[in-house]
Amino acid sequence: MVKIDVRGLSCPEPVLLTLDALDDYNNEEIVVLGDEAHTRKNIEVTLNQYNIKYTVTNLEKEFEIKFNV
Q: Which of 3, 34, 51, 69 is most buried by its number of CB atoms within 10 A?
């Protein structure tokens, strides 16, 4: 499992880090941990554009998006 921590980062950096993970990790589960609603939405839009299935877990003030590449 690969973890990407995008907490506290401003867009477009979280999306760019997610796209880098798509390129760098094959057959891996990727977990993105973030804390901003707009970041979550932007990552979801990106994953939908690539037809990647994902799950979102809401934590207290954070979220976790899991997907496989």
A: 34
SS3 per residue for 14-68: HHHHHHHHHHHCCCCEEEEEECCHHHHHHHHHHHHHCCCCEEEEECCCCEEEEEE
With H, G, I as helix, E, B as strand and everything else as coil, classify residue 13.
helix
Is the omega angle on the peptide bond into residue 14 within 30 degrees of 0, that is, cis? Answer: no
In the chain the domains, ranked by start, together with CATH numbers, are: 2-68 (3.30.110.40)
Any idea what the Cα angle at residue 15 is, between residues 12 and 19, rounded to 5°? 130
Q: Is the pTM of this model over 0.90?
A: yes
